[in-house]
Amino acid sequence: MSVKEAKKNNIIENSLKLFSKNGFYNTTIPDIAKSMKMSVGNMYNYFKSKEELAKYAIKYSTNILALELREVNNMDISSKEKLFVFTRKYLENVKKSPEIIEYFLRVYLSNREVFAEGCEGFLCVGEFVTEVMILLDEGAQSKEFREQDFFPAFAMIMGALGGFAFLSGEKVLEKDVTEYANNVADNIYRALKYDE
Amino acid sequence: MNKPKVVWFQAITCNGNTHSLLCSNSNRLELFLNSFDLIYHPSLTTNKTLEELLEEDINIDYLLVEGAISDNKDFFQISNDTTKNHLHTLINRSNFVISVGSCASYGGVHAKFEENEDISGVKDNIEGLKLNHEVINLTGCPVHPEWILQTLFTIKATGSIKLDNEGRPAEIYSNLAHHGCTRNEYFEWKVETESFGLKEGCLFYEQGCRGPMTHSNCNKILWNEVNTKTRVGMPCIGCTEFDFPRENLFETKKHIGIPFEPPLGVPKRAYLSLAGVAKTFKIDRLNSKLIED
């Protein structure tokens, strides 16, 4: 990775924290520059605008999840076990780097107008969606998951995981978020599993 | 000058490849008849009968076999013997053996007949025989007439022909049926057709089209020099591959809405990524009729 790319990633990581905490519109380029101890002018050497930064940030954050799910997909275990392993990793991420999921929920999903051009549909989250497709496809091929349309199955996974990140962010959970991993995974699995 | 002798032997067949040969371009067929000596074909008027051919010790340059082979006399016989015995007699006198069509190549649809398990292709029935050249497979149901003629003329001119791993002429079977399909733009942008016979849309996503995984040059040389299945709006059914005929020919096999087989040699992850991006954009032109009513 070049020095410039490393710096870009560093800016993205900082902006994720600020965006997810204060919201897209309440966070300014000077705020991000300040947190980076950079000049505002220098910031523009890396990103042309706050909108551009926001688009890079969604790609960056979902790619972290995509890489994790790809690793799980490549494991030599059953599809059921993959669901359990990924759910655990995801909730550990929610705990360890809440800004990654929070950014998705509180900025990406809540400010669609910012992402209307350049991040239409699955364009900026494609790598993650592809991994979910691979997970579902392989599970159905091995008859661990039942046949159904893609989107209801996709929503069953993303709804449960996204919902739990939201509950964690609202601090309403009684236990540590990772302690729910097996229950959440089991619910997703029951919704997808092959009918005998 | 003596013209090379050609024999067309029919085994267990529907006659489809004979029909195909007779549909070839008339100039090409005339050139074939002028360049080769077709000494026997069961559907055409030739000087010899099959019995005479089997009895006389004639050297055959090109033995073309149409149809599947069986050693079971109870199910199928011609001239009081099995197709396998006749095949052996003829191969022993032949320089080149060419399986014309899927049935001769590997048994085709006849190999699916469950009551007689010994039905197979020419290549499966040559044990103990000495061949001058590997058996040439012209798969297809039926073969394109030009594939037969091109193969014969190539060997006549050069003495041999380059084959692929399945024993098929590489020049003919290195393309995919997808190459040259007029629907490629719809394939690129993942726009599915609504039904058979329409000018618009791709047949790969729902209708079971096998163009992107089937070796043939159908869309390059065209049928009757005019058209192909995919151009006219019917899916390619993969008839040149060795798993033909498969079940559910007009249905794309999917799991949870995701195609089971991506195009040949394309990793599924790569295919799904690209498809996802293409599907994001709705191109008005590709979603409209080419010619408005």
Search tags:
heterodimer; A: 196 residues; mainly alpha; Tetracycline Repressor, domain 2; 10 helices; B: 293 residues; alpha/beta; Rossmann fold; Cytochrome-c3 Hydrogenase, Chain A, domain 2; 5-stranded parallel β-sheet; two-stranded antiparallel ribbon; 11 helices; 28% helix
Describe this structure in a few short sentences:
Chain A is an all-alpha fold and about 200 residues long.
Based on CA inertia axes, which overall geometry of chain B fits?
elongated
The radius of gyration of chain A is: 18 Å
Task: Note the main sheet of chain B.
Answer: 5 strands, parallel
The dominant shape of chain A is elongated
Total of helices of chain A = 10
What is the C-level CATH assignment of the largest domain in chain B? Answer: Alpha Beta
Task: Give the name of the CATH architecture of the domain at 57-192 in chain A.
Answer: Orthogonal Bundle
CATH superfamily of the largest domain in chain B: NADH:ubiquinone oxidoreductase-like, 20kDa subunit
Low-confidence stretches of chain B: none
Estimate percent helicity of chain B.
25-40%
Tell me the helix content of chain A. 55-70%
| Most residues in contact, chain pair and counts | A-B, 23 and 14 residues
Query: What would the CATH topology of the largest domain in chain B be?
Result: Rossmann fold
| Percentage of residues in DSSP E strands of chain A | under 5%
Structure description:
The complex is a heterodimer of chains A (196) and B (293). Chain A has helices at residues 3-22, 29-36, 40-43, 50-73, 79-96, 98-108, 112-115, 126-141, 150-169, 181-192. By secondary structure, chain A is an all-alpha fold. Chain A is elongated and about 60 Å long. The model of chain A has no long low-confidence stretch (mean pLDDT 94). Chain B is α/β, with parallel strands linked by helices. Chain B folds into 2 domains: 5-173, Rossmann fold (3-Layer(aba) Sandwich); 175-293, Cytochrome-c3 Hydrogenase, Chain A, domain 2. Chain B contains 11 helices and 7 strands. In chain B, strand 3, helix 4 (83-91) and strand 4 (94-100) form a beta-alpha-beta unit. The longest helix of chain B has 14 residues, at 145-158. In chain B, 39% of the residues are buried. The A-B interface holds A 120-123, 126-127, 129-131, 133-134, 136-137, 139-141, 145, 147-151, 153 and B 255-258, 260, 268-269, 272-273, 276-277, 279-281.
